[in-house]
Amino acid sequence: MATTVPANPTSHTVGLLLTKISDADPDFRYMALNDLLATFNIAKPDILQHDFNTSNRTLDEVIKALSDQNGEVQNQAIKVLGPLVKKLPSPLYTTAMQKLIELQSQNSDVNSVPAMALKAVVEALPRPVPGVAPTQEAQEAYDSINKLLIPRFLGQTTGKQVPGLLQGAHVTSDSVDVLIEVVRCFGPVLTLVEIEALHDAVVNLLAQEKCTSVVKKRAVAAVSMLAHYLSDDLLAAFVKRTVTLLRKSSMPPATRRLYITILGSMARSIPHRFGRYLPEVVSFVLDALNEEELQTQLEAIQEGSETTSEWSDVREAALVALDAFLSSCPNQMRPYTNDAIEACLRYLKFDPNYAADEDEEMEEEEEEEDDDFDDDDEFEADGSFDDDDDASWKVRRCAAKALHTIISTRSSGDLLESGVLYQKVAPALIKRFDEREENVRLEVLSATSLLIRKTGEGVIPDFTIDSASGDSIGQAPQSRKRRRQSSAAGQAGMPVNLSGTGLTSPKAEKIPATGPRADLAALTPAIVKSATKLLKGKLIPTKQATINILDDLISVQKGGLAPYLDQITDLILDAIKLTGLSTSSAQISFAGGSASATTNTLRIAALRLINSFARNHSSNDLQPYLPKIVDGVVSVVHDRVYKIAAEAVQTAEEVSKAITPPRARMTAQKFKGELQKLYSVMVDRTTDNDADAEVRQKAIHALGTLLSRTSGTEGAALLSDEDRKTALGHLKERLFNETTRLAAVRAIDTVAALSSSGDSFDAPWTHEVVVELAAQLRKANRSLRGSSVMALKHLVLSPATKNTLDDATVQKVVTALVTVITHYDAQLLGPGLLVLAHLAQEKPQIVITEELMTALCKLLMESTVTGTVLDSLLVLVHSIGQTGKGEVLMQRLLNEVALSGDPSVVGKVIGTLLVASGNKGTYTAELFVQEIQKQKGERASLALTILGEAGLRLGDKFPYSPSLFLEQFHSEYDKTSLSAAVALGRAGAGNVAAYVPVILQAMHQGGNTQYLLLQSIKEVLQQVAISSTDLGQLSTPIWNQILAASGSEDNKAVCAECIGRLVIIDPKTYMLKLVSLLNDQSPLLRAIAIQALRYTLPDENDVFDSMLKSHLVDMLKTMLEDPEMENRRHAMSTLNSAAHNKADIILGHLNKLMPYVMRETVIKPELIREVQMGPFKHIIDDGLELRKAAYETLYALMETAFSRISIIDLYDRIVAGLSDDNDIKALCNLMVSKLAYIDPDETIRRLDSIAEAFRKTLSTKLKDTAVKQELEKQAEANRAALRVTLLLGEKLKAFLSTGGAVGAAVPGGSAAVAGANQVWHSYWEWVSKECKTQLQILRDEDNKGAGVI
Q1: Contact status, residue 43 vs residue 87, Cβ threshold 8 Å
Q2: Whose CA is closest to 1229, among 1120, 1143, 1338?
Q3: pLDDT tens readout for residues 464-485
Q4: In the 8-state DSSP scheme, what is residue 1220?
Q5: Predicted structure pTM score
Q6: Which residues are 1170's β-sheet partners?
Q7: Dihedral (CA of 139, 140, 146, 149) sign
Q8: Residues 616, 619, 621, 625, Cα dihedral to 10°
């Protein structure tokens, strides 16, 4: 029977369908309802708004169908009710509710269908949104609930007395589900009286013995939902009632389990309100898990009794509740940490049906019998113990989950550093690797994997495919949402080792004497031994989780598995070669509860592990296994699954690095045959047009790596000239292909960058490639442009291409690069200018043209040239000067640019050109000296800058004395004076002996030029540090003069920088002096010392770093304790700089520094004052700047030392910051955005607090007198809050769609989490409605940004 619904249905369409709903044939009734459903789904919202007659008839017919004898018709009627209610006129809401209630009263014995219908109607009704005035429709919907449904729940209806839906012995779970839906949709507008009455009704259900367990489980969910709206008094009374009941020793196990489940559910539902009651209730959960009750049960089992399911259910519920306490109320649970760990460990090994008296002696015996595990047919074949009555595995699984929560929330900066996790938890987890139940085993492996990652660099998001091969990271990190299977199905959130370029053979890191890394190293043998047993099994989820653990070990320890390669290599290679499974094996994978672990994902994980082997272990360690590894990897390079093939190619590339120089200098020839195999498959995959694009791109990259490693005197013999020529030809071909061009460019870049004078590229090949690379500089693809210019630079500058470029090729390159200069593409300018500088020396007549000079003049006039671009520009100008063609450029610079550009930049360019040209010809230094004497203002400033640069480059050959510059010092700090000061410093750096004593003498004489002289000293010290010039005996007078000049407020910043420069130049002499300054009585000198230390931290100097290691932490502690608030602000900035630049020094001492940071993020009421400004009063927070600095430092530490920070304390301060000043809010929004990726579990736990802060921000209404700046700040704060809201909503969508869902309740299931994140759900509904337009704009921006990338 085909549907007859038109594209634009009307109420007349609905009326036609109504006649068929009463048809005698159930198929016709069903299809009529189906058509009605389709009609309402596509119809306009007002289809029935003005047709009350049709609306009433439709409502009657659909409700009548609920009593149909055919079950399918009934179900279809329930489906129709929701869309129907959305189209009904609002006055009919009460009518619909009344008819459904009457229908339920008539069928009070069997009321599942009416209840399901009521639930559908409640869900479809317009609901109020918190914080927004309810619409008329929402108010009428609430009125129908208030007048009809709530009295029906409570049995307060008028007329015929019918038991309430929540009263009597025949209450069904469907009725409770209706209540849950009412609270979910209308909770914010329910009155306190209604909440209290409904709560009492649900609590009475819990106390009724005749109620089924299913009803009571749904009642637990209802209690959790209602908890959000309970008054403090009612909540306290309920907790007190629960405590009183749990104190009764005669309480039945089922009731005990029920109330323990309620406690855990409420902890998840209202963690902040429930936390205050935790000390009162936690003992009842821990008592259920204590040693005494366990021993009593074990003794009963030994005497012949069986473990009852009720006993196991109580323990399972207690562990689930304990998990909820630990995750939702971590601060309140700190005093109970040891008890919680002991309880989890106690039940982690609880397996009475397998070994009733497992003691240490038996464990040692099992460890000696390695083969017993393989012979356990039940473990291998079924993955579980064949005992339908055995529920102990659920207890062990919950214990493992609770341990996972402890590791997740309490490891970083807490239990990991104290040693508790490795002393107590880790050994127990490793012993349970041989767990017979697959679900439990996966949880154990997941917890172990998390502990290993926490030991290393924390939980770091996965990078993109490109990043693993050393390319740029362009995508957002992947989700780290925990799954049952080893916390991830793939490479489990392990950090990609970006530091290992493969140019040197990795060396085993020195194991610390103490700490988590030392503990992990001590346990590695036991982990590997147990993992080896698991790898011999057949269960795919277990094998994949085990492989991920080994990968974690390698990544955290940067190797560390060399002694065990003989045990695990063959097992990993077997997993790689696995091409198919028997039917039973596939069923094992599914039964194991890990659908994401398949044969293919297992093989990918195994290939990644081999990749980690090769990347993190020395070539000597790998040599005995290289033939087998190469054969194993080569065998799957052509796999039909492209992800496996791509991973195999990437692994082949890493293995090739281990075989070739410079990693394998002495033994490379021994593995020439293996290298040839790798070369063959790389070429084959590169040239295979049928291969997936990702496979081809990775193969091209791998081929480029192989060619680069087999070049030069060390590697040339490993690859024949013919093979090399063939491979370069393939790269050239791929360069002309659009889909593989970027990969080919990067491969050519790698080959050219590592080429040496012993190599040679064919001239035709070089010409074609260089021209094509130059052509790519015009393309829109940013990544392609950047890679092309780097490849062009390396190829042109390579010794292998020296004097091979013909005039035509050079002309094309110059034309392309002149265009780059003209359009000022900063990404390409630095390398491009270096290419021109090199070509200018070889073919000046082609390179140095009018077009180039015009482009350079335009660049200086219209753009800001700094950093590496300026350095490259100076190199080019120097090359032009050396060719003897600099006079024309000099003339154009002076005539066309001169004062049109930045004088400091133009002066450096002209000064460099002047020196490179030999100070000969029309334009000499004397000309600029005359300019200084004749001109004033900007022309004099430019001449001074030119002479300063010339003095720096000429050194003692510079013919002018310091007086030339000192004469330009004026009492007012104008541009000429400042230019003269900087020029004096640069010239002085070129001739320290002649200039510095004069500068010091001038400083000693005093006067109002102290600031200018300090600028000169600063420039001298800066250039001396770069050139490593020895100051000799002058350093001490410089130090003394700097301190003498520090009394002026204007001089403070420059004095600090000068002192920092001196410490860098001579740390052995001045580091201790800097330490003494930090303890000086003068606040000003302490402030200077703090800032001086900050200036030193970005510098890279081995001698300085070795001195700094001994003093940095103590210096930071001293300055963070400074009594002056401004000095503490500077200290925070210094710690911020240390986090970015010297993280390795402070990382091990972060526990000493973090308390200072956390303390300064707290708002101090004593620093807030009210100031009267005319008729207005303003609130001034004197501690705001320090607090901003503390949050900036917290952000820096989160990025560089996340694994050493307590995530609980960190998130506490972030949530507090979301309600602080707008600048602090912005920082905290950034941190929340990052933590959504880095630690999604903790982010989920904090969603309610985040939602409250965001709602407060978005609800802020400024006064009518607010100025434009205030409006802009508030708009930016709103936009930032919405952006993070959108990120959290999309990023955590999978959890949020189920976390608060109400379904079949089991301990640890939805009943345990019902009501969780209700504040977030409510906020999400509100913001989705009130800020719909802004959210859509942000979505469009994100999609557009993703498209550009």
Answers
A1: yes
A2: 1338
A3: 323 333 433 233 333 333 333 3
A4: S
A5: 0.83
A6: 1179
A7: negative
A8: 100
